[in-house]
Design a protein that fits this description.
- The chain is of the alpha+beta class.
- The chain contains two helices and seven strands, in the order ββααβββββ.
- The strands form two sheets. The chain has a five-stranded mixed sheet, with helices on one face. A two-stranded antiparallel sheet has the order 2-5.
């Protein structure tokens, strides 16, 4: 699943919540401490890690890709 973000980057803990991979921000800390979170296939333990478009975060077999929040406007003029 692709999850768009507004800015150029987002913190891992915030992204996990935004992507509905965790229920609340406080759920991130124990999952990270137990090595249950991966970013781009590698175990990540830092909740504050900055993710950029293209990065893939995974928890418990569910994954989400960071997508750019920019929307192209297609107008006829």
């Amino acid at each position: 699943m692709e999850v768009p973000i507004r800015d150029a980057s987002i913190r891992l803990g915030q992204f996990l919540k935004l992507a509905n991979l965790i229920d609340s921000g406080s759920d991130a800390k124990p999952l990270l401490a137990d090595g249950q979170v991966t970013v781009n296939g590698e175990v990540e333990i830092r909740r504050g890690r900055q993710l950029v478009p293209g990065d893939v975060a995974s928890v418990a077999g569910q994954s989400a890709r960071v997508a750019s929040g920019e929307v192209e406007i297609d107008v006829p003029w």
